[in-house]
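Contributing new records

If you add data, match the layout below exactly. Sequence lines come first and carry their own label; structure lines follow with theirs. Keep one chain per record. Anything else will be rejected by the validation script.
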Amino acid sequence: MSTNEIKIIGVGKTGHQIVEKISVEAIKNTDCIVCDINAKDLANSSVQNKILLGTGKIKHLSIENQVEIGMDSVLNSEVELATNLAIYGFDQFDALFGEQSKMTILISRLGGTTEAGATPVIAQIAYKRGVFVGAIVYTPFDFESENTKNIANKALRKLREDCDLVLVIKHSKIGKLYGNLSFKNSESKANEIVIRLVKAIMPMGFINDNRLDLKLFFKNNIDDNPFFIGIGDGEGTDRAKKAIEAALKNTLSERERFEGVNNILLQINSGSTEMTVEEKREIDNVIFNTLKNRSAITMSVSEDCSLGNALSIMVIAY
Protein backbone atom coordinates (compact mmCIF):
# COMPACT_ATOMS: atom_id res chain seq x y z
CA MET A 1 0.00 0.00 0.00
CA SER A 2 1.33 3.47 -0.83
CA THR A 3 2.02 6.27 1.64
CA ASN A 4 -0.64 8.67 0.35
CA GLU A 5 -2.41 10.65 3.07
CA ILE A 6 -5.99 10.22 1.84
CA LYS A 7 -7.79 6.89 1.42
CA ILE A 8 -11.08 6.58 -0.46
CA ILE A 9 -12.65 3.22 0.36
CA GLY A 10 -15.65 1.75 -1.42
CA VAL A 11 -17.47 -0.94 0.57
CA GLY A 12 -19.72 -3.46 -1.18
CA LYS A 13 -20.98 -3.40 -4.75
CA THR A 14 -22.16 0.21 -4.87
CA GLY A 15 -19.12 1.61 -3.10
CA HIS A 16 -16.96 -0.46 -5.43
CA GLN A 17 -18.63 1.06 -8.52
CA ILE A 18 -18.25 4.62 -7.25
CA VAL A 19 -14.60 4.25 -6.29
CA GLU A 20 -13.82 2.72 -9.69
CA LYS A 21 -15.04 5.94 -11.31
CA ILE A 22 -13.10 8.09 -8.87
CA SER A 23 -9.89 6.11 -9.44
CA VAL A 24 -9.90 6.99 -13.14
CA GLU A 25 -9.31 10.63 -12.24
CA ALA A 26 -6.06 9.79 -10.39
CA ILE A 27 -6.58 12.40 -7.66
CA LYS A 28 -3.30 13.60 -6.19
CA ASN A 29 -2.12 12.18 -2.85
CA THR A 30 -5.01 9.70 -2.76
CA ASP A 31 -5.33 5.92 -2.66
CA CYS A 32 -8.50 4.23 -3.89
CA ILE A 33 -9.45 0.93 -2.24
CA VAL A 34 -12.39 -1.41 -2.82
CA CYS A 35 -13.70 -3.94 -0.28
CA ASP A 36 -16.22 -6.69 -0.97
CA ILE A 37 -17.15 -10.29 -0.20
CA ASN A 38 -17.28 -11.10 -3.93
CA ALA A 39 -13.82 -12.26 -4.99
CA LYS A 40 -14.78 -12.37 -8.68
CA ASP A 41 -15.91 -8.74 -8.71
CA LEU A 42 -12.70 -7.69 -6.99
CA ALA A 43 -10.59 -9.64 -9.48
CA ASN A 44 -12.31 -7.86 -12.37
CA SER A 45 -11.95 -4.42 -10.81
CA SER A 46 -9.66 -1.81 -12.34
CA VAL A 47 -8.90 -0.44 -8.87
CA GLN A 48 -5.41 -1.48 -7.82
CA ASN A 49 -5.99 -1.84 -4.06
CA LYS A 50 -8.51 -4.56 -3.12
CA ILE A 51 -9.55 -6.14 0.15
CA LEU A 52 -11.59 -9.34 0.28
CA LEU A 53 -14.00 -9.33 3.21
CA GLY A 54 -14.73 -12.52 5.13
CA THR A 55 -14.79 -16.01 3.67
CA GLY A 56 -17.60 -15.76 1.14
CA LYS A 57 -19.99 -17.71 3.42
CA ILE A 58 -22.10 -14.67 4.31
CA LYS A 59 -24.53 -15.22 1.44
CA HIS A 60 -25.65 -18.54 2.93
CA LEU A 61 -26.88 -16.99 6.17
CA SER A 62 -30.30 -15.55 7.00
CA ILE A 63 -30.66 -11.84 6.35
CA GLU A 64 -31.24 -11.19 10.07
CA ASN A 65 -27.72 -12.41 10.83
CA GLN A 66 -25.88 -10.92 7.89
CA VAL A 67 -25.19 -7.50 9.40
CA GLU A 68 -23.58 -8.97 12.51
CA ILE A 69 -21.67 -11.51 10.41
CA GLY A 70 -20.47 -8.68 8.18
CA MET A 71 -19.03 -6.96 11.24
CA ASP A 72 -17.56 -10.21 12.55
CA SER A 73 -15.81 -10.84 9.23
CA VAL A 74 -14.00 -7.53 9.53
CA LEU A 75 -13.04 -8.05 13.16
CA ASN A 76 -11.93 -11.62 12.53
CA SER A 77 -9.86 -10.46 9.59
CA GLU A 78 -8.22 -7.83 11.80
CA VAL A 79 -7.21 -10.61 14.21
CA GLU A 80 -5.39 -12.25 11.31
CA LEU A 81 -2.91 -9.36 11.37
CA ALA A 82 -0.71 -11.42 13.68
CA THR A 83 -0.57 -14.46 11.44
CA ASN A 84 -0.76 -12.84 8.00
CA LEU A 85 -3.17 -15.56 6.83
CA ALA A 86 -5.00 -13.51 4.20
CA ILE A 87 -3.47 -12.17 1.01
CA TYR A 88 -6.42 -9.82 0.51
CA GLY A 89 -7.68 -9.79 4.10
CA PHE A 90 -7.64 -7.13 6.77
CA ASP A 91 -3.98 -7.63 7.44
CA GLN A 92 -3.72 -4.76 4.95
CA PHE A 93 -5.35 -2.34 7.37
CA ASP A 94 -2.12 -2.16 9.35
CA ALA A 95 -0.48 -0.46 6.38
CA LEU A 96 -3.65 1.21 5.16
CA PHE A 97 -4.09 3.30 8.30
CA GLY A 98 -0.45 3.85 9.16
CA GLU A 99 1.14 7.07 10.37
CA GLN A 100 1.03 8.55 6.88
CA SER A 101 -2.77 8.34 6.71
CA LYS A 102 -4.53 11.60 7.57
CA MET A 103 -8.01 11.22 6.10
CA THR A 104 -10.27 8.33 5.11
CA ILE A 105 -13.52 8.59 3.15
CA LEU A 106 -15.81 5.55 3.24
CA ILE A 107 -18.48 5.13 0.57
CA SER A 108 -21.36 2.67 0.72
CA ARG A 109 -25.07 2.07 0.28
CA LEU A 110 -26.30 1.12 3.72
CA GLY A 111 -29.21 -1.03 2.58
CA GLY A 112 -26.85 -3.82 1.57
CA THR A 113 -25.81 -6.25 4.28
CA THR A 114 -22.13 -6.24 3.32
CA GLU A 115 -22.04 -2.46 3.41
CA ALA A 116 -24.09 -2.17 6.60
CA GLY A 117 -22.03 -4.82 8.33
CA ALA A 118 -18.52 -3.84 7.32
CA THR A 119 -18.55 -0.04 6.88
CA PRO A 120 -18.97 0.86 10.60
CA VAL A 121 -16.22 -1.53 11.64
CA ILE A 122 -13.77 -0.22 9.04
CA ALA A 123 -14.57 3.27 10.31
CA GLN A 124 -13.84 2.12 13.86
CA ILE A 125 -10.48 0.64 12.87
CA ALA A 126 -9.45 3.89 11.14
CA TYR A 127 -10.77 6.10 13.93
CA LYS A 128 -8.83 4.21 16.60
CA ARG A 129 -5.66 4.82 14.60
CA GLY A 130 -6.21 8.58 14.78
CA VAL A 131 -7.32 9.05 11.18
CA PHE A 132 -9.95 11.67 10.27
CA VAL A 133 -12.86 9.49 9.15
CA GLY A 134 -15.64 10.62 6.84
CA ALA A 135 -18.48 8.46 5.55
CA ILE A 136 -20.66 9.26 2.55
CA VAL A 137 -23.61 6.91 2.45
CA TYR A 138 -27.07 6.76 1.01
CA THR A 139 -30.13 5.12 2.45
CA PRO A 140 -32.66 2.75 0.82
CA PHE A 141 -35.55 3.77 -1.40
CA ASP A 142 -38.92 4.42 0.26
CA PHE A 143 -40.37 1.28 -1.34
CA GLU A 144 -37.74 -1.07 0.11
CA SER A 145 -38.59 -3.36 3.01
CA GLU A 146 -38.70 -2.28 6.63
CA ASN A 147 -36.01 -4.84 7.34
CA THR A 148 -33.69 -3.20 4.81
CA LYS A 149 -34.39 0.22 6.32
CA ASN A 150 -33.75 -1.10 9.82
CA ILE A 151 -30.42 -2.55 8.70
CA ALA A 152 -29.44 0.83 7.24
CA ASN A 153 -30.50 2.72 10.37
CA LYS A 154 -28.56 0.37 12.61
CA ALA A 155 -25.43 0.81 10.50
CA LEU A 156 -25.90 4.58 10.48
CA ARG A 157 -26.06 4.72 14.28
CA LYS A 158 -22.87 2.70 14.54
CA LEU A 159 -21.12 4.88 11.94
CA ARG A 160 -21.84 8.02 13.91
CA GLU A 161 -19.99 6.55 16.89
CA ASP A 162 -16.66 6.37 15.05
CA CYS A 163 -16.76 9.00 12.30
CA ASP A 164 -15.78 12.65 12.34
CA LEU A 165 -18.21 13.23 9.49
CA VAL A 166 -21.24 11.34 8.19
CA LEU A 167 -23.01 12.66 5.08
CA VAL A 168 -26.30 10.91 4.36
CA ILE A 169 -28.06 11.07 0.99
CA LYS A 170 -31.71 10.04 1.07
CA HIS A 171 -32.23 7.97 -2.06
CA SER A 172 -35.93 8.80 -2.12
CA LYS A 173 -35.20 12.50 -2.68
CA ILE A 174 -33.17 12.01 -5.85
CA GLY A 175 -36.25 11.22 -7.93
CA LYS A 176 -38.03 14.27 -6.55
CA LEU A 177 -35.12 16.47 -7.59
CA TYR A 178 -34.43 15.02 -11.03
CA GLY A 179 -37.90 13.87 -12.04
CA ASN A 180 -39.30 10.40 -12.65
CA LEU A 181 -36.02 8.57 -13.22
CA SER A 182 -35.74 4.92 -14.15
CA PHE A 183 -34.29 2.68 -11.44
CA LYS A 184 -30.98 2.43 -13.31
CA ASN A 185 -30.76 6.19 -13.88
CA SER A 186 -31.64 6.85 -10.26
CA GLU A 187 -28.74 4.66 -9.13
CA SER A 188 -26.44 6.41 -11.61
CA LYS A 189 -27.52 9.86 -10.43
CA ALA A 190 -26.99 8.86 -6.79
CA ASN A 191 -23.47 7.72 -7.64
CA GLU A 192 -22.76 11.03 -9.39
CA ILE A 193 -23.86 12.94 -6.30
CA VAL A 194 -21.65 10.84 -4.03
CA ILE A 195 -18.65 11.41 -6.31
CA ARG A 196 -19.28 15.13 -6.17
CA LEU A 197 -19.53 15.02 -2.38
CA VAL A 198 -16.16 13.28 -2.27
CA LYS A 199 -14.65 16.07 -4.34
CA ALA A 200 -16.37 18.69 -2.17
CA ILE A 201 -14.64 17.51 0.99
CA MET A 202 -11.25 16.76 -0.56
CA PRO A 203 -8.74 19.23 0.93
CA MET A 204 -6.87 20.06 -2.28
CA GLY A 205 -10.02 21.55 -3.81
CA PHE A 206 -10.01 24.54 -1.50
CA ILE A 207 -8.71 27.98 -2.25
CA ASN A 208 -6.52 28.07 0.87
CA ASP A 209 -5.51 24.40 0.45
CA ASN A 210 -5.49 23.96 4.22
CA ARG A 211 -6.32 20.45 5.43
CA LEU A 212 -6.52 21.52 9.07
CA ASP A 213 -9.16 24.11 8.24
CA LEU A 214 -11.25 21.43 6.55
CA LYS A 215 -11.02 19.10 9.54
CA LEU A 216 -11.91 21.96 11.87
CA PHE A 217 -14.96 22.77 9.74
CA PHE A 218 -16.43 19.32 10.31
CA LYS A 219 -15.19 18.85 13.88
CA ASN A 220 -17.03 22.04 14.90
CA ASN A 221 -20.24 20.02 14.62
CA ILE A 222 -19.90 19.00 18.27
CA ASP A 223 -23.63 18.28 18.66
CA ASP A 224 -23.52 15.84 15.71
CA ASN A 225 -26.35 17.69 13.97
CA PRO A 226 -27.55 16.24 10.65
CA PHE A 227 -25.98 17.94 7.65
CA PHE A 228 -27.98 19.85 5.07
CA ILE A 229 -26.96 18.79 1.55
CA GLY A 230 -28.42 20.58 -1.45
CA ILE A 231 -27.57 20.91 -5.12
CA GLY A 232 -28.70 23.37 -7.77
CA ASP A 233 -27.85 24.49 -11.30
CA GLY A 234 -28.27 27.81 -13.05
CA GLU A 235 -27.63 29.16 -16.52
CA GLY A 236 -28.13 32.33 -18.47
CA THR A 237 -28.75 35.65 -16.75
CA ASP A 238 -28.36 35.48 -12.96
CA ARG A 239 -27.05 31.90 -13.18
CA ALA A 240 -25.32 32.14 -9.78
CA LYS A 241 -28.48 33.38 -8.07
CA LYS A 242 -30.56 30.66 -9.72
CA ALA A 243 -28.08 27.94 -8.75
CA ILE A 244 -27.78 28.86 -5.08
CA GLU A 245 -31.54 29.37 -4.68
CA ALA A 246 -32.14 25.92 -6.18
CA ALA A 247 -29.48 24.35 -3.95
CA LEU A 248 -31.11 25.76 -0.82
CA LYS A 249 -34.48 24.31 -1.85
CA ASN A 250 -33.38 20.95 -3.27
CA THR A 251 -32.23 19.07 -0.19
CA LEU A 252 -30.97 15.52 -0.69
CA SER A 253 -30.29 14.87 2.97
CA GLU A 254 -32.03 13.97 6.19
CA ARG A 255 -32.00 17.65 7.21
CA GLU A 256 -34.90 19.31 5.42
CA ARG A 257 -34.31 23.02 6.06
CA PHE A 258 -31.31 25.26 5.45
CA GLU A 259 -32.41 27.81 8.02
CA GLY A 260 -30.54 27.61 11.31
CA VAL A 261 -27.15 26.50 9.98
CA ASN A 262 -23.99 28.26 11.12
CA ASN A 263 -21.27 26.62 9.01
CA ILE A 264 -21.47 26.33 5.24
CA LEU A 265 -19.32 24.55 2.67
CA LEU A 266 -19.86 25.48 -0.98
CA GLN A 267 -18.58 23.35 -3.85
CA ILE A 268 -19.00 25.31 -7.07
CA ASN A 269 -18.56 23.90 -10.58
CA SER A 270 -18.33 26.27 -13.51
CA GLY A 271 -18.32 25.34 -17.17
CA SER A 272 -16.68 27.20 -20.03
CA THR A 273 -17.41 30.54 -18.33
CA GLU A 274 -15.64 30.93 -15.00
CA MET A 275 -17.44 32.23 -11.94
CA THR A 276 -16.88 35.94 -11.37
CA VAL A 277 -16.34 37.91 -8.17
CA GLU A 278 -19.75 39.52 -8.63
CA GLU A 279 -21.39 36.09 -8.90
CA LYS A 280 -19.72 35.04 -5.64
CA ARG A 281 -21.17 38.16 -4.04
CA GLU A 282 -24.64 37.22 -5.33
CA ILE A 283 -24.29 33.74 -3.82
CA ASP A 284 -23.29 35.16 -0.44
CA ASN A 285 -26.19 37.63 -0.50
CA VAL A 286 -28.75 34.87 -1.10
CA ILE A 287 -27.30 32.82 1.76
CA PHE A 288 -27.16 35.70 4.23
CA ASN A 289 -30.64 36.93 3.32
CA THR A 290 -31.97 33.41 3.90
CA LEU A 291 -30.23 32.94 7.24
CA LYS A 292 -30.39 36.52 8.52
CA ASN A 293 -26.88 36.10 9.91
CA ARG A 294 -23.26 36.06 8.75
CA SER A 295 -22.50 32.35 8.86
CA ALA A 296 -19.01 31.08 8.13
CA ILE A 297 -18.62 30.07 4.47
CA THR A 298 -15.85 27.82 3.12
CA MET A 299 -15.64 27.47 -0.66
CA SER A 300 -14.04 25.29 -3.30
CA VAL A 301 -14.23 25.95 -7.03
CA SER A 302 -13.61 23.52 -9.88
CA GLU A 303 -14.19 23.28 -13.61
CA ASP A 304 -16.65 20.96 -15.35
CA CYS A 305 -16.64 21.45 -19.11
CA SER A 306 -19.85 19.43 -19.49
CA LEU A 307 -21.78 22.31 -17.90
CA GLY A 308 -21.26 24.62 -20.87
CA ASN A 309 -22.10 28.13 -19.65
CA ALA A 310 -23.99 26.89 -16.60
CA LEU A 311 -23.00 27.02 -12.95
CA SER A 312 -23.64 24.22 -10.45
CA ILE A 313 -23.51 24.61 -6.66
CA MET A 314 -23.47 21.98 -3.93
CA VAL A 315 -24.12 23.11 -0.35
CA ILE A 316 -23.07 21.18 2.75
CA ALA A 317 -24.06 22.89 5.99
CA TYR A 318 -24.92 22.35 9.65
